[in-house]
Design a protein that fits this description.
six-stranded mixed β-sheet, 10 helices
């Protein structure tokens, strides 16, 4: 028996030392040629160090986290004399080991040089070793492992044709080729079709408008939690007692009336910003856009003069406009002229959103779904119906304080819904 020293190879780029990040073996382990002994990390890459020969580990250089000098002893192996002599001649230069680990584009030729394999070696190899079992670590050079990881291939599913069942670059190439031609079994069928869909019509208009809003407006989004338990109780009672011909009340009419009252105190949020002229057009009339999903895409029909409408008038107009938008009968006037917008995904509304402002407006109010959550009342946690408002503002003309104040005014009215019906 003889001792074989495996030194930390030169990993290139002028690196003088490397950090030991992982051992794959321990003293006493019997290893086979090309089995990974450990891994080191430099500021360039993580490199796996393979065994140059079959043998038994008799010494390891330090613990994970230690800094090792390039060229220092890494592992010492006990090998038989014949193996030591043979592997001594086959050990690649340290620079080749570095290239093998870090440059997959030249890995195939480097692998053959490192293992002294002539290009026609496969012709004289014994039959391929069986595929590895799920718990086995397959034998493969670091470059082969890297290529397999990048290709998303499991080396345990590849039969190795190298010594002791080692997986070579040729084995990996053959495996990948079978995958491309569909001859290897897969748990689900692969799909390769690509469908090109030209963005036209309404979808193109939506894309253009969103691009303008996103590129021109620096958004600030403010999220607030609102206790709507009392409002939901009131809404249920009003719907239960509504007269024939009256519309069903959703959350939106209450929110619209709360917004009208809040805007009365902060009229600069009910505006358009002409950023090219540097002018803010502040509107007296409150024209609320209602973002509506239709089969053709997102449109925003407008409830004009919401300040002059009561709860039921708001509800009736929202229902009428939503139906017109969905069936394509909404007129140009019904789809333009909004001064502030509401966006809601209903039951799919999520916990919070980041709404994009409907350019050239300066504010948008987002409604998230209602959910029962524990709420601290000062003495105990009680179940309450809670809803988040996610609202965005044009930070060029709306300060964060004004945005928060606006949302807090809406919150106060929704949590005490009687205020919605009281004229100040």
């Amino acid at each position: 028996m003889a001792e074989r020293v495996v030194r930390l190879p030169d990993v290139g780029e002028g690196i003088a030392e490397a950090e030991l990040v992982e051992w794959h073996v321990k003293v006493g382990d019997v290893v086979r040629e090309d089995a990974v002994l450990g891994a080191v990390m430099t500021d360039k890459a993580t490199v796996e160090i393979p065994s140059p020969a079959d043998g038994r580990v008799i010494w390891l250089a330090g613990s994970v986290g230690d800094i090792l000098a390039i060229g220092s002893d890494f592992v010492r192996l006990e090998v038989d004399g014949k193996s030591a002599q043979a592997t001594e001649a086959a050990t690649p230069p340290s620079s080749a080991a570095s290239a093998l680990a870090q440059k997959p584009d030249v890995a195939a030729s480097a692998s053959r040089m490192a293992a002294s394999e002539p290009p026609n070696m496969l012709k004289s190899q014994p039959p391929a070793a069986p595929a590895h079992h799920a718990g086995d670590r397959p034998l493969a050079a670091p470059a082969v492992r890297l290529r397999a990881r990048e290709a998303g291939s499991d080396l345990r599913q590849i039969r190795g044709t190298g010594p002791a069942g080692r997986i070579t670059h040729d084995d990996l190439d053959a495996h990948l080729a079978r995958g491309r031609t569909g001859t290897t079994a897969a748990p689900y069928p692969t799909q390769a079709a690509v469908t090109d869909i030209k963005i036209v019509g309404l979808r193109r208009k939506i894309a253009e408008k969103m691009s303008v809003a996103s590129s021109r407006i620096p958004h600030i989004t403010y999220v607030e939690e609102v206790d709507v338990t009392a409002l939901e109780d009131l809404r249920a009672k009003l719907n239960g007692q509504k007269q024939p011909g009256k519309p069903k009340l959703t959350m939106l009419p209450f929110l619209m009336r709360a917004m009208v009252r809040a805007i009365a105190e902060q009229q600069h949020l009910n505006a358009h910003f002409d950023d090219e002229a540097g002018i803010v057009h502040q509107h007296a009339g409150v024209h609320i856009g209602i973002a509506t999903q239709t089969p053709a895409g997102l449109v925003v029909p407008v409830v004009h003069h919401a300040e002059a409408r009561d709860l039921w008038s708001c509800a009736a107009e929202v229902a009428r406009l939503a139906e017109a938008a969905r069936n394509g009968s909404a007129t140009r006037d019904e789809l333009t002229g909004s001064t502030i917008t509401i966006t809601s995904l209903g039951a799919l509304g999520g916990l919070a959103t980041t709404p994009i402002i409907n350019h050239p407006e300066v504010a948008i109010v987002g409604v998230n779904r209602i959910a029962i959550r524990p709420h601290w009342n000062g003495a105990a946690f009680v179940p309450r119906q809670m809803m988040n408002l996610s609202s965005s503002f044009d930070h060029r003309v709306i300060d964060g304080f004004d945005a928060a104040q606006f949302v807090q005014r809406i919150k106060t009215q929704l949590e005490t819904p009687a205020m919605i019906f009281i004229d100040a």
